[in-house]
From TrEMBL:
An example molecular function term from Gene Ontology annotations: glycosyltransferase activity
Organism: Silvanigrella paludirubra
Keyword presence, Transport: no
Domain Glycosyltransferase subfamily 4-like N-terminal: residue ranges: 132-242
Protein name in UniProt: Glycosyltransferase
InterPro entries, sorted: Glyco_trans_4-like_N
Length: 440
């Protein structure tokens, strides 16, 4: 059977989102199916060090007019803009030019702020420059590949539109519309008027043509079923046990007495409330115990906002931003840390938001500290299903519990999962998904 996966994220792009689609492709190829990946061209902003075996997949990077415009901007306009700013700022006599470029820079930064806050011009909400690839990609799929099954992975939402137009041309194609993230109901990004009104209409209309709609959690399933008035099937992100087998046994950290709390992955703007709480807990701990050896390490993209918070709480000797890690390093850090941190939002709207790193944390067998999670969050059922060691803290009033767990988790003995014990195996989840799709 010919299967096409339409996705922005796929190895070697180092993102937790890449792993979900890779696990589908890996398992289905093992079962004898022909896998083609339709994806976007690489850019100079992402990390491409996710070194997984992709030789058995046909990977097609679909260029569009957007890529030509983007390349032109980076080579010509951005270069000229930068040189103008530099020359204007060094030439004291060119006052008007300096003001002009400062104004343009101010507008540009404001535009970027709005884009990040609302989710536009990225991968979450309309408008998005990646929309230019929809027509070309859908025509290529139906005319050149002629698949039996298409899986579109949202976000970006344009992957669903690619699959929709391909299926509209060939109704015999089966279509799985997979939601890693929500589109118009996204709790992080509200979009902008009037696009957010139009999006809702488009989403409901095109998803009626999908043979199967899937998502990562029961919380998102319930939300989608209400909005779309269709049944939704849950496929958790899970974990690929092979990833753990392939990493080095060499300890990632030195053998010392430092209590290491780590966070891996993206830091969303809405998480800063939880980060403030965590910083308050650590600040109080080192105030009471000045000799306490504790490090909190963020393996994430550098954030000036986070750096300001670190300084505000006088935690520069305890909290560090260390940048993204490779996949292997990330799993080693999670395995060898004292505590893995999950940042939540004590709000029912986020109950279904389950990052893929949750399953990485669970499989590492390292204790998990949840900060600011709603007590009804679906995450706690998964922890119980997997016998994970965890604590949830929602207030500075739980400081004594925090201190207690620091010492308790420091000396815990970690016991690895035995073979076939882990209930969220990516191979099993992928295999069950394909069976479901073929009988729907």
């Amino acid at each position: 059977m010919k299967i096409v996966l339409v996705t922005l994220f796929f190895p070697p792009t180092n993102s937790i989102a890449s792993l979900r689609l890779y696990s589908f492709a890996k398992q289905w190829e093992k079962e004898g199916h022909e896998i083609t990946i339709i994806t976007f061209p690489k850019n100079d902003k992402d990390n491409y060090d996710l070194n997984l075996d992709i030789k058995n997949f046909k990977i097609i990077e679909m260029y569009s007019i957007f890529n030509s415009i983007q390349n032109f901007y980076r080579k010509k306009i951005k270069k000229n803009f930068t040189s103008n700013v530099t020359s204007a700022s060094t030439n004291k006599n060119n006052y008007i030019s300096t003001l002009k470029n400062r104004f343009l820079n101010f507008i540009k930064n404001k535009f970027i702020q709005i884009s990040h806050k609302k989710g536009i011009l990225g991968i979450y909400r309309m408008p998005d420059p990646k929309d230019f690839w929809i027509r070309k990609a859908s025509k290529f799929i139906t005319n050149e590949i002629k698949p039996d099954l298409i899986v579109s992975s949202c976000g970006p939402y344009s992957t669903h539109l690619v699959a929709y137009f391909a299926k509209r041309k060939n109704k015999n194609i089966k279509w799985i519309a997979d939601y890693r993230d929500l589109w118009t109901s996204n709790p992080f990004y509200s979009g902008i008027f009037p696009f957010n009104r139009v999006e809702k209409i488009i989403e409901k209309y095109i998803l009626k043509k999908a043979n199967l709609i899937t998502t990562v959690s029961h919380g998102l399933k319930n939300e989608l079923e209400i909005m779309l008035d269709q049944n939704v099937y849950v496929v958790e992100n899970g974990f690929d046990e092979d990833d753990s087998k392939n990493i080095s046994n060499t300890p990632f950290y030195p053998n010392d007495d430092i209590i290491r709390l780590i966070y891996t992955g993206t830091i969303y703007e809405k998480y800063y409330q939880s980060i403030e709480l965590l910083f308050n807990l650590i600040a109080e701990s080192v105030k009471i115990k000045p000799l306490l050896k504790i490090n909190l390490i963020f393996y994430s993209k550098y954030s000036p906002t986070l750096e300001s918070l670190i300084k505000k709480h006088n935690l520069s000797n305890y909290v560090f931003q260390s940048g993204y890690l490779s996949r292997e390093e990330c799993l080693m850090a999670q395995r060898d840390s004292t505590i893995n941190i999950l940042l939540g939002l004590n709000d029912y709207k986020f109950n279904g938001v389950l990052s893929g790193k949750i399953f990485e944390y669970i499989y590492s067998k390292t204790p998990i500290l949840c900060i600011n999670y709603n007590t009804n969050s679906e995450i706690f059922k998964i922890f119980k299903d997997t016998n994970a060691i965890y604590t949830n803290i929602n207030s500075i009033n739980e400081f004594s519990l925090f201190n207690k767990k620091l010492l308790e988790y420091k000396s815990i003995n970690k016991k690895e999962f035995s073979e076939n014990e882990f209930p969220y195996s990516r191979a099993t989840l992928a295999s069950n998904l394909l069976k479901k799709a073929l009988t729907t």
